[in-house]
Write a structure and sequence with these properties.
This protein has 268 residues and is mainly alpha-helical. 78% of the residues lie in helices and 0% in strands. The protein has 15 helices and no strands.
Length: 268
């Protein structure tokens, strides 16, 4: 039955979505409550004294004015270098699409039902993607609660763009995890490869940002994290070519995963 796997997956996932969402929302709320504790003019003076390399390594670009606003403080404090945290949830969900069930030997039971393999995978993918939307919505609600409790003046519309930009990023990471798990099959090996992929991307992005005008800068362009830049999003809004890239690559990896999963034997 179309949608049955989707609904069952949501039933099994909604608690994790709430837990992750509340945890990240609490972090966002805390950052917002910290805003009144800092004099942004003093922060600007301090940042101007740092070498550009140091600023780049912590995620601050050339336009310091963006990061010395209340919105910029929240963006750099919560979104700037927290991408590794945001990558954990989609990795966990991506592993659950196929690798976990193959590893514990229950996938053959599910696939014995009169339902196509591709449908099972696609519905799980969509259910987990929807759970990511829920997590991001809770993060945004956390920002709002912080604004209300702390009486902080923030342009919540601008922060909404930075927040909801997380959705295509997280879906991309989940699609990459799903594809690796389908290709490698063994859960521990797949998880190791995915972890290395995320960490190496983080390192390339950090080094590339700190070494402008060198070969390292070009290497930074390889990292998917380069295309989630809180400062650029604050100043420009949604960067649609980057979003289209995340979505397009996610679709390609999803289709490749479905094709490969249909073709190969299932571990039992």
């Amino acid at each position: 039955m179309i949608g049955s796997v989707f609904l069952e997956t949501l039933k099994q996932t909604w608690k994790q979505m709430i837990y992750w969402g509340i945890g990240l929302a609490a972090m966002a709320l805390l950052i917002v409550l910290m805003v009144p504790l800092f004099d942004m003019q003093s922060v600007a003076t301090l940042l101007e004294s740092f070498p550009p390399v140091i600023l780049a390594m912590v995620g601050i670009g050339e336009d310091l004015a963006i990061f010395t606003t209340n919105e910029g403080f929240v963006a750099i404090g919560f979104f700037g270098k927290s991408a590794l945290i945001f990558a954990v949830y989609p990795v966990v969900m991506g592993m659950r699409i196929s690798a976990n069930e193959e590893d514990n030997g229950t996938s053959d039971v599910l696939l014995s039902l009169p339902i196509a393999r591709a449908q099972v995978m696609a519905e799980k993918f969509l259910a987990y993607a929807l759970s990511m939307v829920g997590v991001v919505v809770l993060i945004y609600l956390g920002l709002h609660v912080g604004v209300v409790l702390g009486g902080v003046e923030l342009d919540v519309a601008r922060l909404a763009e930075v927040t909801f930009y997380l959705i295509p990023l997280m879906v991309f990471v989940m699609a990459a995890t799903m594809l690796i798990a389908v290709l490698v099959r063994r859960r521990t090996v797949a998880l190791g490869i995915v972890t290395a992929f995320v960490i190496i991307s983080y390192m390339l992005q950090t080094i590339g940002a700190a070494a402008e005008g060198t070969v390292a800068e070009s290497m930074g362009a390889i990292s998917f994290l380069t295309y989630y830049n809180a400062g650029e999003i604050l100043s420009q809004g949604f960067i649609w070519p980057h979003i289209a890239g995340f979505v397009g690559l996610s679709v390609v990896m999803l289709l490749a995963s479905l094709y490969r999963y249909e073709q190969r034997d299932i571990a039992v």
